[in-house]
Fold this sequence. Notes:
With 86 residues, the chain is mainly α. 57% of the residues lie in helices and 0% in strands.
Amino acid sequence: MKKQEIYEHIVRILDENFSIEAARITPEARLYDDLDIDSIDAVDLIVQLKPLVGKRLNAEAFKSVRTVQDVVDALYLLVNEDQQAA
């Protein structure tokens, strides 16, 4: 899965489930400061992203996540780690 596909999926989730206008969502947007995503929302977001990855998401992978691009990068690594290990 490509980073652009992951980004588009995240934008769709934030727009549909968190009522955040797609125009406000940019790769540089900070989840807490710019998009008002609090810790409870962040957990909900991770739960909604699980089907995209197809496996349990490790909370450790998201500890340093601050921006939408950080989420994309973390998911990209998780999605592609099985392929890299092969």
